[in-house]
Amino acid sequence: ITTVTVSREITVGILSTGDELIEPGTPFLPGKIYNSNSWQLMAMMRHMGAVPTYYGIAPDSPQETRLRLQAALDANQVVILTGGVSEGDYDCVPGVIRELGFEILFDRIRVQPGKPTIFAVSPSTGKFLFGLPGNPVSSFVQCRLIVHPFLAAMQGARWQPITTVFRLKGEYTRRKAERMAHIPIRINNDGTCSPVPYNGSAHLVALSSAHGLGRIPVGIQSIRDGEPIQVVLF
To answer: Domains in the chain and their CATH numbers?
Structure first.
């Protein structure tokens, strides 16, 4: 073999938004939370073969968000930001994205966790932007399900997470079944799987003991012991 086909590395800018965020390693303060999203996404980008650059934390200010976002866009093909993508009083990201000339192709998806997810493109520059939710499990799930396949496609590849089916040990029940749900799942030695104790999309530690995400289709409110469940493996 004298030649091989390669693809160009994708450069990705990453930043978080929110007055409540502080960086890991700094003294904890009341009313603050550590910025786990950016470092989680940095690791995921490297695992995907992309080249990530971190642009820090933007406070809940349209001006500051615009400055950091513009810096990331100037130097990268794709930008991923987390937080500020909903419709709260301090969620300024959608407006800033539009001011920078981006067309938002969607800002909601029928998936749990991660409903407020943005994908936008700049018609003038051809650059892409993902706005992921601020809760860390939500940003992990949407990066895995949406961002990773997109980056692979940019490199001329087709990638989808490995999925398989296991029998559930125990039961799973949810109150609403309007969205496709993804819950942390552990694979057992007997070939079954069990839900990991999970308190919602802020419960990042649940992912550390999971082997994948159990996928619950729209309209399914419960899965009984012994019934099959599709699992998206990590």
So the answer is: 11-154 (3.40.980.10), 163-233 (2.40.340.10)
Instruction: Give dist(CA 144, CA 162) in Å, integer.
Output: 11
Cis peptide preceding 195, ω within 30 of 0: no
This model's pTM is above 0.85: yes
The residue assigned the tokens 């018609």 is: 123
Counting Cβ atoms within 10 Å, is residue 22 exposed (0-12), middle (13-18) or buried (19+)? middle
For residue 176, how far is the Cα from the chain centroid?
22
Element (H or E) spanning 215, and its range?
strand 212-216
Provide the β-strand partners of residue 130: 80, 119
Each residue's pLDDT tens digit, 134-167:
999 999 999 999 999 999 999 988 888 899 999 9
List of residues 6+ apart from 27 with CB closer than 8 A: none
